[in-house]
Amino acid sequence: MLLKFPLQRFLIYITICLIGILLLNHFSNVFIRHVPAIAPILFPTLTMFLMVFHTMIAVFMVMKYLCDRRRLYLMAIACAFASSAVLMLGTLNSYPTWFLCGASDNINYNDALIFYFFRNIIMAVLFITSVVLYAIKSRDMHSMRNHIFILGGLFGFAIVMLVLSWLYSSHDSLLSVKLVDNNTFQYSEIWNNIVNWALVVIWLITLFTLIFTTQLNNIFWYSGAFFCACYIFTLLVLMSGQDTASYSWYQARLFETISTLFLIFVLFCDVFTLYRQSNTKYLNSYQNSIRDPLTRLFNRSYFYDSFTALQPTIANGHPVSVIVSDLDHFKRINDKYGHLQGDKVIQFVARVLQDSVRQNDVAARIGGEEFALLLVNTSPEVARTIAERIRLAISQHDAGSSNAQLPESITISMGVFTATDLSVSVEECVRRADEAMYRAKAAGRNRVVVWE
């Protein structure tokens, strides 16, 4: 079954490329032409920046792969950028005084262009390999043996290309190619008519393979496609000049550096997105661990942990009141109306409790139909008043006023205890409030009793 081509994503991508490339090209063109004096030292300087940027991207890809071994396709991209960074060392070696960022008369432009040629070949081929690995990532290929075999192939290809680039760059008389005349700085016919166009075609194949295979289904592949388009445009910029002394030589390197920096920003955005998603999942998981799933009140363990954490405030003269409550004749409601209706009753009471406390207080469900409130810095008199208000709010509702949440009028019995010093433990405080609640039950239910 053929996948439907994502025309809308493609149009978005085209728009991004047009705007992005035009802006980057305008900036690089204006910068080079208005500051011509620094153009000779700009090339080695930008090459050093590019080497650092590509190393960063390679490390980033390796780290993402180590976090999720199913993303084997990232290792192809890591290998591409790592190889590119190594080849930039060769490019810097073509500039004898690169470490001084100064101009020199002994620059080997031919070697620099050879390293540039091999960088393009390595990156384009490994980008295509990455896309292929992405397309088959859901298949049963993630065994240790397969990973070693594929990684060995990636590293082997990169090493072979690195060795060839070193041999072709004035290190072997049998393997040599002239892309630039180092005396006249003129591009050769081979570069103008064959090599440059061949690189454009290879990057176009890479770009279309990436778009049609990945369907541009996330920001990562959007950035990868944009990166391919930038390299195509860089080659076209080089075509516009006839020699390495022209502005196009320096503008192409500046454009490449800025577009790579843009890719790093996109990767940082990807990291931020993953962090935000992970943080959201963690917060949701944490909330689920401390809340009752039916009522979304806090659960029993959180109630006790909060009470323990509040003990130091009691020592400072801030009393903490505990209200334990239990629905009256709740078993009869379950037996008569069913457990689903019983759950609705529990949820209704939970909302009343939650609406009756302050933000820094704790409302918890500590049993089937048993609830507890933890009131911070609250005296016994105020706690009793709050409990009475809750009791009346619940008893005054019936089926009509509760929007069918209650099948009939219900009542609640409540016990109150206030801790004013540290002589009573947390468990004992709750036990005393619970005992006061049972006294309310024994006294006829639907009332509040303060422990004495």
UniProtKB/TrEMBL annotation:
Its EC number is 2.7.7.65. InterPro entries: Diguanylate_Cyclase, GGDEF_dom, MASE4, Nucleotide_cyclase, Rev_trsase/Diguanyl_cyclase. One of its GO terms (cellular component) is plasma membrane. GO terms for molecular function: diguanylate cyclase activity; GTP binding. Its cofactor is Mg(2+). Residues 318-452 form the GGDEF domain. PROSITE patterns: GGDEF (PS50887). The keyword Transit peptide does not apply. Keywords: GTP-binding, Membrane, Nucleotide-binding, Transmembrane, Transmembrane helix. The chain crosses the membrane at residues 12-32, 38-60, 72-93, 113-136, 148-168, 194-212, 219-238, 258-275. It catalyses: 2 GTP = 3',3'-c-di-GMP + 2 diphosphate. SMART domains: GGDEF. This is diguanylate cyclase.
